[in-house]
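Notebook entry, cofactor series.
This is the third protein in the set we're modelling with a bound small molecule. For this one the ligand is zinc ion. I'm keeping the input format identical across the series so the outputs can be compared line by line later. Sequence and SMILES below, as received.
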Amino acid sequence: MPELPEVETTRRGLAPHLEGRRIQGVQLRRADLRWPIPEQVAEALPGQRVHTVRRRAKYLLLDTAAGSALLHLGMSGSLRVLPGDAPVRAHDHVDIVLDNGRLLRFNDPRRFGCLLWQPRGELHPLLRGLGPEPLSADFDGDHLYAASRGRKAAVKTLLMDQRIVVGVGNIYAAEALFASGIAPQRAAGRVSRARYEALATEVKAVLERAIRRGGTTLRDFLDADGAPGYFEQELAVYGRGGAPCRRCDRPLRQAWLGQRTTVWCGHCQK
Ligand SMILES: [Zn+2]
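Returned structure with ligand:
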């Protein structure tokens, strides 16, 4: 499933091909993805110029003067810029045709993705109530500390709560907790300010590292076939239950926490 770094890599890959271009038309090959595609997408977008390609949490927004197309890749979605005559393949659901003979194509085999419309000056309901971006200055140890006081929920659950901070999925939460030495199941309200400082720093570091690695796949967003290669990552704990801890060599533990499997080192994380 695309996580924040993949979505940010997608944004960076698409922006140079879309920003400044005028949209000539929208071709919908089906009426719905995860949700019905609102008719404003096909009605309002043609003729509009794409000002910016933005990301908020794991949503991509194509901003125009009329409003914004709001996209989510879901579990299996991908976006690419293709020549206008590129053959249509299975699961190619939407084309946004550009004024330079190219098009932006949305492919999504499992259809958990979405294409929605945000009128100018409004905030789509899906974007309301979200916490700060993890790579922004608004997200830091003080923010986590303040948000966690009196909370009995596990610190990992807090970290994955989109109202607290957006875009920290299971992989990155597990990795950041390992890097900062905090046990994932520790009650959020019982983690000190200093440890939250370390955690916030590690969240940023693990996401930035993943985005940097994604940089090598940017070419895949242009004229490529198949699904973009989400980057291989060197993960310390995620997916490594039972394997030796890279710090102390003891076997990593694995358990269910908040309906997610979580892996940690019982020795290195307290
Ligand atoms: Zn260890």
